[in-house]
Specification:
Helix content: 25-40%
Shape: globular
Structural class: alpha/beta
Largest sheet: 5 strands, mixed
């Protein structure tokens, strides 16, 4: 997803530098849903002042990635968080004048070495709770299909988190693709329980919550039936998952409200 964002930023004329573990430049070839192929070159970090920072690491790596960069931040820097889950910035103290924006995307892409296969370009919301978008968004929108500003980004984050909390951990647990959850059996029953608990929490946060998490989760599972979720990909690759920032975040918020979510707690225990 970071490479996909980079391709769109470069197309809009922005100058990019790649801050990576190996401190090296990178080349990526993107294969688009319409059959196009394009290449991008990402220059290595030059240790200059950071005016805009796109964070595309796994949620659990966020603080370790950003903390060393704080001394290089421009006083009016923008941080754009392109990640699954919520709560990845908890515990990180940012300068008061730094603006942190969140992206909620339903785009799809997967990587094989330097090849990026873009499988879906859908709607992407961006916001920070303010009614005022940053001025650079106008230049980026023509090059990022479906990108739009929302003043209520937190609700959009919750909508995506609820679906992710139903689909991702179950695919990781059962080692199955998204569509295989719709088995009219145990997997689908567990989807129902997870969705009901998510809706119970969200109804406490939003009195007008429509209790539609199950319907949206089933629709996403059907639309992405052949997809491997990011959490399953992490499990298969032996990497830490983001379950603490998806189901774990639901549980932390529920605990603050004195609400039990036993189905989510059981999944968190099963996935370690």
């Amino acid at each position: 997803m970071g490479s996909l964002a980079a391709a769109r930023l470069l197309a809009a004329g922005f100058s990019l530098r790649l801050i990576s573990r190996d401190h090296q430049p990178a080349q990526r070839q993107l294969h688009w849903p319409d059959g196009r192929t394009s290449s991008i070159h990402l220059a290595a970090d030059d240790n200059d002042t950071i005016r805009h920072l796109v964070v595309a690491v796994k949620a659990g790596e966020t603080i370790a990635a950003i903390q060393p960069l704080l001394s290089r931040m421009h006083p009016q820097a923008d941080i754009v968080r392109l990640q699954n889950g919520m709560g990845s910035l908890d515990g990180l103290t940012l300068p008061g004048t730094v603006r942190c924006l969140h992206l909620v995307s339903t785009d799809g892409a997967w990587r094989d070495a330097e090849q990026i296969q873009v499988v879906a370009e859908n709607r992407t919301l961006i916001g920070d709770g303010s009614p005022r978008p940053p001025p650079w968004l106008t230049d980026l929108q023509p090059h990022w299909p479906g990108l739009s500003w929302t003043a209520d980004i937190e609700r959009a984050q919750w909508q995506k988190l609820a679906v992710n909390a139903v689909i991702n951990p179950l695919t990781a647990l059962y080692r199955c693709r998204n569509g295989e959850l719709l088995d009219a059996g145990e997997r689908e029953q567990r989807m129902q329980l997870l969705a009901q608990e998510a809706d119970a929490l969200l109804a406490r946060l939003y009195p007008d919550w429509p209790a539609d998490t199950l319907a949206r989760s089933c629709e996403v599972a059907r639309q992405t039936a052949a997809n491997t979720s990011s959490m399953l990909a992490d499990v298969l690759a032996g990497r830490p998952t983001e379950v603490q920032f998806i189901n774990g975040y639901l549980l932390r918020r529920a605990g603050q409200l004195g609400l039990a979510l036993p189905a989510h707690q059981a999944l968190l225990t099963e996935l370690g």
